[in-house]
Each structure stands twice: as structure tokens, then as C-alpha cells.
Hints:
It is globular, with a radius of gyration of 23 Å. By secondary structure, the protein is mostly helical. Among the domains are: about 130-285, Orthogonal Bundle (Hypothetical protein af1432); about 300-355, Winged helix-like DNA-binding domain superfamily/Winged helix DNA-binding domain (Arc Repressor Mutant, subunit A). A two-stranded parallel sheet has the order 1-2. The chain has helices at about 15-20, 30-40, 45-55, 65-70, 75-85, 95-115, 130-150, 155-165, 170-175, 190-205, 205-215, 220-230, 240-255, 260-270, 275-285, 300-310, 315-325, 330-340, 345-355, and strands at about 45, 120.
Amino acid sequence: MAATQSRTAPPRPNRGRADLAARPTASAGSRLAEALEAVERYPVALGAREEAMAATAASAPRIGQIVEAVESDVALAMLVIRMANRGARRAGTAASIPAAIELLRPSGVLALAGTAATYDPIDPTADGAVSQRFRMHAHLTRRAADQVALATGFERRDDLAAAALVHDVGRLVIAELHPASAGRLDPVARSPEQRLREERERLGIDHALVGGVLARRWRLPSEMAEAIERHHAEDAVGLAALVGLADLIAHRLLGEAASLERMRILSERCGIDQTGLRGVFRELPKPPREPARVREPCPLSARELDVLQRLAEGKVYKQIAEDMQLSVSTVRTHLHNVYGKIGAVDRAQAVLTARDRGWI
């Protein structure tokens, strides 16, 4: 992998595999520990790193933009959520990227992004096919999970998005421990469940189990760790079932083997009928039309929001005053406060800012 930081070449994601394979006498525990540490150095895509640094270094950082930047790269998402749950007081508290950013603050995310190992996706020496497939599948699963959440009415969309992004992290561990096995488990010819069984038979472990180990090592919330470990389980329920369904949908969309019977069972368990499932497949290729999951914290009072909403509807001060049974001077005062709180200079900018940040 080509270095993007001149002072130190970042570690390759597969670095150390040859060493692990060449030391068959090393204990299984030490080899696993080395593999887990290697995954923690998994490099961040250069573009995502730059976007995250720009968003967090802004004079008035916007949480929505930071979340989008972090979720755009699975390695950056893993780094942020891992570090947010680090420490006795933080362990198990950040179940989503927005929650992780709230704990770390934009300055903390900036520091992480600025010091992370990176890779350039257009560099011919960067990353391998296994890693690229992992990245693509992670992001498609997150998108599928969001559509599943909308179809089921699952309200914790941020939590589901984070679990969907990191659900297959165990594959990176397996690739570190057994690099020669990566090419044998063809996702086009074998379903996820078939590959899981083959991992157990050939390697003695499987990626879901190892992913759960890594999640607990990172002190992620127990529900997220269970979803990672059990998203292939026959009796998966709750978050694990939602992630498992999104995982199958992503495999199907990528033209890879996926059991339609298991997809049907999981969709019914999650509360989606066949029509709803077809709707998920229909909506996924389209540009997002649903409101963003993440909204900026709103500094306005309920009364100020009511005034601003009416202003956005094109009403003048007198009409707003009549609607709200206020004096015109009181309406002016509310709007003056609105402008000051959000840094707007006029009504047009106030309305655009409020709409952009999801307040009205």
C-alpha cells in the first residue's frame, strides 16, 4: 500500500500475514491477538479522511456532515466507534456513530482522522480484492439496513447503521489469520451460511464468532456485539435479525449467493411481508428520498421554531402574529433571537439554514 503521509508509511491491512503463516509454532492465542491488532490498524480511505478532517475542523462543525464523512468509510467508522467506547466510563455507551461523535467531540474525531493510517483507492498497490469486497459489502449492508428500518418502523436507525457497517469485521480477522483461505470461499458460488460452515470446518472458527470477540474487545454495546456475532444465527432476533436481513439483501444486490428462503424467514421475523421486501429492493438503487437520520441539535425554543416555520410558509409578521395570537413586536423579537442563535442575517438565510439542518 502506498503511503499518503510522508513521515511514516501506514501499515498495510494484510501486513503480518506472512509472519503469522511462517510461525506455526506460535500459540493460537498470540496469533489471534496479533490478528486483532492488525485489524485495529485497518486503513482509512484517503478521501473519507480528508472529508472528515474538513468537517471537524470547520469553525462551526456540523454533526450531520461529520457523521456522513465517518459513515462513508467502514475503517473510519470502526475507529471512531471503538475509541468512543474506550475506557471504564465510556464502555458500551456509544451504539451509533452520532453517539460516538458526541463522546469524542469534533476535535477528537479530527485527531483520530488526522493520525489514522490511510490508503488511496486509485493507487494500484492499495488494498486487495478481499478488502475492497469487504468495504463495498459493508456500505451496501448499511444502506440496506436503513431501508429495512424504514420498512419495519425501527426507530434506532443510527444504531442499526453502525451495526450493519461493522457486522462483518470478523472477516478481516480471518483474512489475517488464514490469508490462503480468502480465495477459497467464493461469495458468488456459496451463500453466507455455507461459507460460515466451511470456515468452521476448515479453520475451526468463523468470522461471526471472531467478530463478536473483536466487538467485546472494543467494549462495544452488548446488543451490537451480539448482532455481529449472531447475524447468521438461525434464531437471530432483534438487531441481529435486522442486520442479518440487510446482509442477505446486500449479497443479493451484489450478485452473490444468498438463500431466498432465509431472506423470507428473516423478513417475516422482522415484520416485513413479501411486498415490503420487494419495496426494499426497489428503493435501494434510487437516490435517498427519506429525511436524513442525523439532525443538528436545535438551539431554538419551541416558540421560536413555530415562528420560523410560519416564516418558511411565506407568511408576513402580521399573519404570524395573528396565527400565534402574539403582537407583531413579539414576533420580531423571536425572529431577532432566531437570527442571532443560528447566525443568519435575514429571513431567507434563516429558513434555508433551518431546513438544511432538519429543524423545520
